């Protein structure tokens, strides 16, 4: 019996589709389970924020837990870069109150330093120096908190960076959770899903 090219093509198409769906659902489960545990352990990280953030990265669809760690560090880096750029734009305004300008300048320095720190965290994570990566990501998290706190030191001043600082804090918390899970072997962190 001879198989036609159409039958062979159909077989490969459906095999690939089933393989993709199987791996996609496995990575979805990993992300959902990781985010559920993370949000249960840290009330500062809502489940929806965690899943939305991780699913936004295309590579997350076929990542292991260890892979999600690097992905979450990269997401934090992108957030830091974007926030620093946003602060720079805000500082261009001539209408800024002196106090707000001072706070924004402080935040710019904090985010600039945090960018250098997150790059170190990426290297530490890649070389399995998880304790160093933990310290570095904790410093990144502190940068967001310190930036936000600067605006609260004067009554009546509203931070224009609250949402961005909050996102930086939450993304850093996700990284710290994944770091802990990888270090303690809380999940199968060595098996790639794709």
Which helices and strands appear, and what pairs or packs with what?
Layout (H helix, E strand, L loop, with lengths): L4 H37 L5 H10 L8 H27 L6 H29 L3 H23 L9 H23 L10
Helix pairs in contact: 1-2, 3-4, 3-6, 4-5, 5-6
GO cellular component, one term: extracellular region
GO molecular function, one term: enzyme inhibitor activity
Protein name: Invertase inhibitor
List keywords for this structure.
single chain, 194 residues, disordered C terminus, mainly alpha
Textual characterization of the structure:
With 194 residues, this protein is an all-alpha fold. Helices cover 77% and strands 0% of the residues. The radius of gyration is 21 Å and the shape is elongated. The C terminus is likely disordered.
């Amino acid at each position: 019996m001879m198989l036609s090219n159409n039958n062979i093509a159909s077989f490969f198409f459906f095999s690939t589709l089933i393989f993709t769906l199987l791996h996609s659902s496995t990575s979805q489960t990993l992300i959902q389970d990781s985010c559920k545990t993370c949000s249960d352990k840290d009330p500062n990280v809502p489940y929806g924020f965690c899943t939305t953030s991780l699913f936004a990265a295309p590579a997350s669809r076929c990542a292991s837990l260890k892979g999600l760690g690097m992905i979450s560090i990269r997401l934090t880096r992108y957030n830091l870069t974007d926030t620093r750029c946003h602060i720079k734009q805000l500082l261009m305004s001539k209408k800024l109150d002196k106090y707000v300008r001072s706070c924004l300048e402080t935040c710019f320095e904090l985010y600039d330093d945090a960018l250098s720190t997150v790059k170190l965290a990426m290297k530490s994570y890649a070389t399995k120096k998880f304790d160093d990566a933990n310290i570095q990501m904790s410093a990144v998290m502190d940068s967001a908190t310190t930036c936000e706190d600067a605006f609260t030191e004067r009554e009546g001043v509203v931070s224009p960076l609250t949402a961005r600082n909050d996102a930086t804090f939450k993304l850093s918390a996700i990284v710290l959770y994944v770091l802990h899970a990888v270090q303690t072997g809380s999940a199968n962190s060595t098996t790639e899903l794709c």
